[in-house]
Batch of 3 targets.
Target 1
Amino acid sequence: MSAAGIGIEGALEALDGAAGVASVRAWMERHREALLAHQDGRRINWRALCDWFASVGLLNGKGLTPSVRCAQQTWYRVGKWLERRNERAAARQAETLRLEAERESEKTAIQAEIRQRREAEAAEKAALRDRMERTERAAAWRREEVARVAEHNQRMAAEAEVRKARAATVANPQSTTGNNVVALTGDTPLVTLDLPKVVGVSYRAYEPFDPTLPPIRKGEINPLSGNAWEFGDDLPGYPSKRGYEFEDDWLRDVGRLLRARHNTTSSMTEEEKFAFRIARGRGRL
C-alpha cells in the first residue's frame, strides 16, 4: 500500500490510546471548565470524586485507580496545561487581529493615497481650467480694447477732418479769454488755446477742441492706450490729455510750454510745478 493511500484514523487512535482515552487526565482536560463552573468557587470533594472515578473505570497514567493526591496533582497539571494552551490561543488570536489591523491600515492608507491623488488631479484640472478661462478673458478684453481704440482713433480722425474743414470756412474767428474760436460743431464752438509757438511742441497742442468737455482727471483710463493717467489732471490753459495717446508726449508739450511762459517755477501754480517737475524728471524736456 502506498503512503498516499494510508489514512490518519489509525494514527489518531494510537495517540488516544497512548494518552489514555479513559484516563482521569483526559476526562479533566475535557470537563475542567464545567466542573469549576459547577463548584462556583467551592472546594472539590476529592474523596467522592475518586470513588466516582473508580466506579466508571477512569485510571491514572499508570493504569491504576487514582488516589486523592494523584487526582489533585493531575488536576493541577491539567490546569497549567490548559492555561498555557489558552495563552497560545490568545497569542494566535492577537497576532491574527494584529495582522488584520495592519491589512486594514494598509488598505486605509492606500485608499487615502488614491483619494489624495484624485483630489490633487481634480485640483490641477480646475486650476488649468481657471488659467485657460483667465487667458481667454484677457484675450477677449484685449480684442475688445483694440477694437475700441481703433474705433476711437477713426472717430478722432474723422472729427479732426471735420474741424479742419469747418475752421477753414470761418471768416472772422472771435477771440475768447485765452482761447480762439475757430469752428462750430452743431451748437458747440471749437476753440484753440492761445499758446506760444515753441519748437518741439507737437501739433496736438494747437488743435481745436470742444471746451464743453470735462478735463481729464488722474486715474481715468486713456482710451487710446488702455492705461490710467498717472500724473495729475489736465492743466487749465494748456492742451488736454484727451488728444494724446501717451502721457509722456503730453508731459513733453506741457513742460516746454510751461518753460516758455515762466522763467522760473516760482511763478507757476502748484499744479504747473508738479507737471513741470515730472516732465523734467522723466527726461521729456
Target 2
Amino acid sequence: MSTRSAAELGAANHQSFFAARAEVSGGIVRHEHGGTVVVTPQGEAMVLFPTVPVEAAAEFVDEQLALFGRHRPLSEIGVWSLDAAGIPALGAALAEHGFDWGWRPNWMVLDVTRLVVDHPRPSGLVVAEANDHWWRYEARLDGATVGRAILHLCEVDGKPVGGLYDMEVDDDQRRRGIGTALAVAVGERARDLGCRSVVLNATGPGEPVYRRAGFAKLGEQGQTWWLPGDRFDQRVG
C-alpha cells in the first residue's frame, strides 16, 4: 500500500498527465530530480515537482531555462513544487530570472468509496464519455456541449490513481448541477478502473462542486511560479 500523502499522489498524477499531453502533441519530456519537465509545440513549458537540493537550485533553474530558450516562442513557463524544504531556494533562483510567485496548489481528494452520486441535475442532461489518450467527458444539454472534464490515470507504487483535469462549465449553465454531474462521472469511472482515489487542484469557485461529489479539501500545499513568454523573450534576447 502507498505511504504517500494525497498531495504527493496528486503531484505524481500531474507529472504523468502533463508528460502524456506533451508526448501526444510531439513535445519534449524530461525527468530530473524526481520531477518532470515538459515543453509542448503549443508553447507551454512546465517544471513539475522536482526535489532539488538547496545548493543546486540556481544551477537547476539555469539548465531548465537554457532548454526552454531553445524552444521559443513560449506562451508561459510554470514551475510547481511540493518540496517544502526546497521552496525558498528554488523561489529565490526563479525570482532572479523574473518569475512571479504564483498561487499555491489547492488539493482535493476523493475516496471513491465515498462518492456521492445522487444530485439534482437539469432535465435531459447527458454526460458522454470517450477514451482516447485519457477519459474525456462532455456534458450535453439540448444537443449542445455545456461542460467538459478529463480523467487521467497513472500508477503510483503499483496502484492506479485518478486525476481530474480541465473541468469547465459554460458561464450561463453554472449552478445547475452540471459540474457535479461531471465530477461524479469521473469518480465512477475511476472507481470502476480500480482507483482508490481521485485527486485534483481546485479553484475557489470549484471547491463546492467537488465537495458535493464527495471530494475532501486537503488545503494549500506546495508553490507555483510563473513567467510569461514575452517577458522570457525580453530577458534572453
Target 3
Amino acid sequence: MAFDLDPRAPLPTSLLGAARIECKQAEATLAEPTPAHIHATRKSIKRLRAWLRLLRPQLAGQYRLIDRLLRDAARQLAGRRDADVALQTLLSVRRARLIDAAAYRQLRDLASRQRRDTQRDGAADERATTLLRAAAIYVEGLTLPDVGESTLRAALAKTRHRCRRRWKRASADPTAEALHDWRKWVKHLATQAQLVGSRIGEPGVDPAALKSLADTLGRHHDHAQLLQGLEAAGLAGQPLLHLRLRDAVTRRQQALERRALRQGKRLLD
C-alpha cells in the first residue's frame, strides 16, 4: 500500500492514518526477515521518519521518542542490509571492468563470508521488531491539532531549505559525509512532497527527480560502505587487493559525485 493521504478524511486524520498503516506494514513485513523484506522495512522506517520531521512542531516531545525508536530499529537491520548491498555493489564494480576477474573472486569471497556472519544475527531482527512495535504504539496514541494546508506548505518549504543548504555544503566540499548527509535530506524532501502533494496542490519540487538524485547519492554511499566493510573484514591485510578496490571505488564515486551535483543544481539552485 502506498504511503499517501486519504483525500476523503480531514487532514489530521489522514496524516495519522498514513503513519499508522505504515507502522503496521513495517512490522508485518519484518515478520519474515528475508533480504527483500528487510529492505522494505528500512524504507518504511525512512518514510515514517520523514513524516515525523514534517510534523515535528505539532508532535512536541513525542517526536524525539518515536524518532529514536525508529532510528534504533533501522540500526538493528543495517548490518544485514549493508552486507547484501556490498555484494551487489561489488558486482557493479566488476561489470564496469574496474577490477579484474581474479580480484573480483577474492573480494566476493570476503564479502560473502561477511554476509554469512550477519545472517546469523537473528536477535537483531527481534530487537528491531520490538522497537517497531513500541513506535507503533506511540503513533497509535498520537493526536494532531487542526493541521492545515498552509502548515504543510511551510513545513515542506523548511525541509527544502535544509536540503538546499546541504547541497551547497556538499558542492563546496564534497566529502563522503557531506554527500551522505545531503542524501538524507533529499529523501526526506521526496517523501514529504509525495505524501502531501495530493492535498496542497503543486508541492514546488519533483518527487521523482528527487528520488533519482537520492539513488545517485545512495550508490555513492554504497561504494564507501563496500570499502569500509571489507576493510573491517580483513581486506586491509591484503595491500595489493586493497589498493585495487580502493582505486576502483574512488573512480566510481567521482563519477557519481559529479552526476549528483549536476542533478542537485537543476533541482535546488
